[in-house]
Amino acid sequence: MASHVIEMRGVRKAFGEHKVIDGLSLTMPEHSIFAFLGNNGAGKSTAIRLITGLLRADAGEIEVLGLDVRKHRKAMLSQIGAIVDAPSLYPNLSAEEFLRIGCTIKGLPWHHIDRVLALVDLTAASGRLVAKFSLGMKQRLAIAHAMLGSPKLLILDEPTNGLDPEGMRDVRRLLKSLPGLTGASVFVSSHNLDEVEKMATHVALLKGGAVRFQASIAELLAAQAGALSIDVGDVARAQQLLSGACYTVERTESGRIKVSGIEKHNADRVHALLVHAGIRLYQSVYHTPSLEQWFMEKHHA
Question: What pLDDT was estimated at residue 65?
């Protein structure tokens, strides 16, 4: 298996005069949960259709699991599972009956059904009609269907869209577990930044039809400046001292001082300044920047 499960190099796709994908390049590491971020209309769904071969690129190269999507689409599709649009389920069938259809289409024995139902925690609901499922359960059933045949790569377009908090939590837990339980890599397009931060190992930002930034979540957040909330004995003096040292400082409603735009490894410098000035320091809390803060900064750059 290739070290990168998806590689896109200089991919372009236009509809008439409208360029949707314009020089897109990305690499998705093996065994990762890769979040493809972008506003609605950024081209995420188009990119997924190009990756799965549902659309043909005007230019550039796309490889999935080491296979050229144009030349070896059938072989590639046999090794992936995908939910590109809203899941197509049969409401008048039970979950087990629905998965039997999937096994028949894929030429798989029915014992695969028990495995994927257990994987998505729907074993107890296997005989229940799909019409009686919650939206979250329907999404997990669709993922179970996509996981029939033990694919090496699962591709999902906005998998938590429209779900309530409980449904989002269940889908998030499921997706986080897949690389460890099955060895599958997971590619997810999303604009739900809170869910992505809790789930993904890597992210790429799509803007203007191209990837503007790609990194692991850990690298991304470690490189971002956060804020320091400090409880001190003399707020006015501390604020004057730190402002004079070119820090961005404000007094909060709770009577603390907040130092913004500071990296975590520089927090001790702030503490040392206060202590050396004889200012009593009671408590200091570093607030790590969120993925949403990073996204807004990069998107509006």
Answer: 96
Q: What is the per-residue DSSP string for the chain?
A: --SEEEEEEEEEEEETTEEEEEEEEEEEETT-EEEEE--TTSSHHHHHHHHTTSS--SEEEEEETTEETTTSHHHHHTTEEEE-SS----TTSBHHHHHHHHHHHHT--THHHHHHHHHTT-GGGTTSBGGGS-HHHHHHHHHHHHTTT--SEEEEESTTTT--HHHHHHHHHHHHHHHHHH--EEEEEES-HHHHHHH-SEEEEEETTEEEEEEEHHHHHHTS-EEEEEEES-HHHHHHHHHHTT-EEEE-TTS-EEEEEE-GGGHHHHHHHHHHTT--EEEEEEEPPPHHHHHHHHHT-
CATH number for the domain formed by residue range(s) 224-299: 3.30.70.340
At 106-152, the pLDDT tens digits run 999 999 999 999 999 999 999 999 999 999 999 999 999 999 999 99
**Domain range list for the chain:** 4-221, 224-299
pTM comes to 0.80
CATH of domain 4-221: 3.40.50.300
